[in-house]
Amino acid sequence: SVKRAYNFNAGPSALPLPVLQLAQQELTDFKGTGMSVMELSHRSKEFENVLNHAKETLTELLSIPDTHEILFLQGGASLQFSMIPMNFLGKDQVGAFVLTGAWSEKALKEAKKVGETTVVASTKEENYRSIPTLDRAALPSNTAYLHITSNNTIFGTQWAEYPKFENIDLIADMSSDILCRPIDVSKFSLIYAGAQKNLGPSGVTVVIIKKDLLKRIPANLPTMLDYNTHIKSNSLYNTPPTFGIYMLSLVLDWIKEQGGVTVVAENNKKKAELIYSSIDKSNGFYTPHATNDSRSLMNVTFTLPNEELTAAFLAQSKEQGFVGLAGHRSVGGCRASIYNAVPLEACQALAAFMDEFASVHA
Ligand code: PMP
Questions:
Q1: Distance between CA atoms of 5 and 307, rounded to whole angstroms?
Q2: Residues with a known catalytic role
Q3: I need a labelling partner for 17 at 20 to 30 A (CA). Which of 71, 187, 264, 347 fits?
Q4: How high is the ipTM of this complex?
Q5: Residue with CA closest to ligand 1 atom 14
Q6: Record-annotated residues binding pyridoxal 5'-phosphate (predicted)?
Q7: Which domains can be identified in the chain, with CATH numbers?
């Protein structure tokens, strides 16, 4: 059997072992072509099949309606921070942003370079430990779109329920929680996600876009930054990240084999509960960063009583085979990223380690 780390990296992060094994098996001869997917022409029938299969599987897993189109782009979620305002923030309009962490701030920063923006809610003052409530009255009448970050990778918070306002185009950065639970895609005008957490390797970004929106795109955008370019060419305008799309298609197949997003969500809930319960029963030894109603299923953030204990926790956890548990500097402490591909057993092992460490050092 293969020796696998308990990988709690924030992204790039764990991939399902069966996916890696299948990719390994197909590496030198993909479906009788005598070559790997990396060596196929992106114009070949074989690759087109891979790409279309990925689209079909994602459509099935998220019940994506006909009103929406799927794109596979490059430039990471970070390029979407710029493309979204370039394509959809009109001259007399305002981009409305909810600030729930560093990634929302970055999305806002890029939109500001393109046009008018406003912050309609923020929890920055409490170091982003919760998701704010949102008032329709805060949205300007000329709102171009409302932008949210569905899961805040660094702070470990996640929207429990998405804002619902009629006639407001909702755009969500789902980089760190896409496919972690069922969502109603029809409520979103655009969803984007870098692949390197729940979808596959880095290098490919999934965009799910409502076709209605495309008519708002101004003329004369740089070709590569215009969503219409990629829509018209089925994400094959130029050479796409072919291997990344292939890996993504295998990850989607794996989710389907698990029983789909509902089953994966149940498993994610169990995984998160294990670690949150170690925090909650520690009598204050571990302090959660997120408030209870904003806790993330994907990134569990917590601090220890002091720097020495944090260092000891990280050192000992490393010795026992846990990887990626250091928190981001803006929160400190620890973070366990428990994306879809992190197995329940890894979370059980971490919870046991946390309980043991607390009992010795509390
Ligand atoms: N948004 C969120 C929520 C993220 O977690 C990240 C990456 N950690 C990004 C955006 C940036 O993604 P990329 O590196 O793909 O540009």
A1: 25
A2: 103, 173, 197
A3: 71
A4: 0.99
A5: 76
A6: 77-78, 103, 153, 173, 196, 238-239
A7: 17-258 (3.40.640.10), 260-361 (3.90.1150.10)
